[in-house]
């Protein structure tokens, strides 16, 4: 049963990260604007982050889906989710009324408790996979 649960979680989490990263790859300038809105990174780092992060999301998601370095990629995704939770949490705490940027500019979702809950659920799934899968 654990094998099937792990496969389902790999497909869901990996698919979400592939989709989210692919949308951002298409329009890195819009993603850079989303990153800048969080007011967390030095201005000099924003473009590099906007260009690099989506490719890491896509690669980790694809490798998780196809079953290569599953523990490593689940851990990488978990670490990205921790970073996203911190970013969204500080934006909520500071009262910033900004779009999440989670799926680029496609959905226009605002930061908030729903985004935090979704990321926390994905973090739990990624942590489960990092603990239960083998590289």
Q: What are the main properties of this structure?
A:
135 residues; mainly alpha; 76% helix; globular
Query: What is the structural class?
Result: mainly alpha
Count of individual helical segments = 5
Helix-strand string: HHHHEH
Sheet with the most strands, sense and barrel status = none
Beta-sheet strand percentage?
Answer: under 5%
The share of residues in helices is: over 70%
Low-confidence stretches: none
Q: How many beta-strand segments? A: 1
Describe this structure as you would to a colleague.
The protein is 76% helix and 3% strand. It contains 5 helices and 1 strand. The chain has helices at residues 2-26, 28-37, 43-66, 70-93, 113-132; one strand spanning 102-105. It is mostly helical.
Write the layout of secondary structure elements.
Layout: H1 2-26, H2 28-37, H3 43-66, H4 70-93, E1 102-105, H5 113-132
Compose a concise summary of this entry.
By secondary structure, the protein is an all-alpha fold. The chain has helices spanning 2-26, 28-37, 43-66, 70-93, 113-132; one strand at residues 102-105.
């Amino acid at each position: 049963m654990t094998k099937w649960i792990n496969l389902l979680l790999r497909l869901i989490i990996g698919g979400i990260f592939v989709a989210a990263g692919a949308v951002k790859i298409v329009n890195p300038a819009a993603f850079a604007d989303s990153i800048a809105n969080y007011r967390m990174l030095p201005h000099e780092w924003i473009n590099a982050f906007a260009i690099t992060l989506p490719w890491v999301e896509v690669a980790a998601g694809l490798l998780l889906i196809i079953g290569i370095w599953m523990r490593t990629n689940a851990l990488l995704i978990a670490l990205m989710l921790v970073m996203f939770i911190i970013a969204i949490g500080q934006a909520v705490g500071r009262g910033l009324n900004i779009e999440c940027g989670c799926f680029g500019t496609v959905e226009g979702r605002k930061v908030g408790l729903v985004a935090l809950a979704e990321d926390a659920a994905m973090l739990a799934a990624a942590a489960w996979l990092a603990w239960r899968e083998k590289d």
